[in-house]
């Protein structure tokens, strides 16, 4: 995979830099820019701490009121016979799930399981990182609480898939191992403006994809799995609200810098969190997983365009004023981007022909791409 770099929507370069995953991986990284936020902007985030305390931290759910993965899994505190009955019922339900759905669900779970990468990433953002590991800054409290809530997602889905017997856990665990080792390359440059734009988009994308997985599970008769995906989606929605609010506030206090950050992120294309996934065998694993996710309706390019349109509307970007001329160019680019994405995707769809592909996650069974 080669990732395009562009400015204002125009492709500038396709820079293949070999990632150090392993010799068979075809994944490449773009050239990496770091600490792009001017140091004086740190004061912007310091000045917003009181606001974050009042407007962001209330979106964390109190621990005592939070759901637990164990509440949605076979109850291991029951007698052995009763527990086994619940596991059998789970396996009967998951027997009805299609192979392509399992690929999509496994890919989603693997993405959640790379949480150490995401917590590392958020703590690399200038001006909002957790400096001590237990800092009382509202940004740090948010990042630790967000991580604690997210930590349940991968665990719950992984345990459910493990009990189903439908997936090759050895290969899935190997993929998680490779993925955490590889890290990520989201082009956010340690810049919290860009970082919070990324998380606004990404949390909404995971909300959409988990909702779609819930709907598909329901259609296939697994109502417990539908509830699990719906429960995770509700967390993602709350997290989306927090990040969207932060960017909204940044647009109010620093419109041009924030508009430039939105434009830069959209120009680079929002990279999915697990884009460096690898199973030791398929050099294009992430691309193949993405095609399955698109085809079964878990996450599509149209939804990517929908999310962009939603954020443009939510942040009132078309009406944003007080921008420099550079900011106005960025505004124009972002506000006109969604229809362009839809047109390009329609042309790609016309040319795409179906092939079959084997996924190690489901014992090398074939699904159509
Ligand atoms: Fe999550
Ligand atoms: Fe999330």
Automatic annotation (TrEMBL):
EC main group: oxidoreductase
A Pfam family the protein falls into: FA_desaturase_2
Signal peptide (residue range): none
Top-level taxonomic group: Eukaryota
UniProt GO MF annotations: metal ion binding; stearoyl-[ACP] desaturase activity
Keywords: Chloroplast, Fatty acid biosynthesis, Fatty acid metabolism, Iron, Lipid biosynthesis, Lipid metabolism, Metal-binding, Oxidoreductase, Plastid, Transit peptide
Cell location: Plastid, Chloroplast
A GO CC term attached to the entry: chloroplast
Main location per the UniProt record: plastid
GO BP: fatty acid biosynthetic process; fatty acid metabolic process
InterPro entries the record matches: Fatty_acid_desaturase-2 (IPR005067), Ferritin-like_SF (IPR009078), RNR-like (IPR012348)
Keyword Ribonucleoprotein found: no
Cofactor(s) listed in the protein's UniProt record: Fe(2+); Fe cation
Family: Belongs to the fatty acid desaturase type 2 family.
Protein name from the UniProt record: Putative stearoyl-[acyl-carrier-protein] 9-desaturase
Species in which this protein is naturally found: Medicago truncatula
Gene: 25489755
